[in-house]
Amino acid sequence: MKKTRFIAVILIVAVMVIGAGYAYWTQDLKITGTVNTGELKVVFANYSDNTIPNDAGYMSVETSVNNDQDVLTFKINDLYPGTGGNMAFIIKNEGTVPAKITGVEAIISDEDRALANNLRYGIHRIKYYRPFKSEPWVQFDLSNVGDFDNFENWLEYRLMNIPPLYQNILGEQLVLEPGGWLEIIAAESGYNIKMPSSVTDNDLQGKTIEFDLLLKFEQNY
């Protein structure tokens, strides 16, 4: 009788040991990650040009934009005293992140700068549009006409410093939301370059003046 009990206990322990080696059901959960980065893309759009005055003869203006829409070329041909050219254009944020302007930089040789200062430059007004709206949210005058040095400094100051009257709406610095844009206009339909009728310096005849104005944008947080 004692022997039988002992065997039974041994069998139970054996079954328990065997059970510990059985396989378990398993399942894995997977997290798949995809990150699409945004894009900073500010472009020139919807430009137009004209001579000053509108019926000025013997001279012409040309405007074009490159394929990436980040270079706007404005060319005045056969300029003479009392005439000029103007260009109206739009700066639009076609990216996915807000963009703010951080500066204006002129790239021009010393020789061309000396010649450029004999001309007069100006922009009259900026209209600011919210994304996908057909009417301007605000507009403010930037009235100024000056030589090249004056215009370069004034344009940077005005684009980077919102007039106090509009700071409660726009903040202290202009920010373009995705889909928003700026329309650059003037009393004579845009960005103006003129040769004053008072210019009599014959050294300005037959010259080519070339310069770039870089409008610098960066992502706004």
UniProtKB/TrEMBL annotation:
InterPro entries: Signal_pept_SipW-depend-type (IPR023833). It comes from the Bacteria. This is SipW-cognate class signal peptide. It comes from Natronincola peptidivorans.
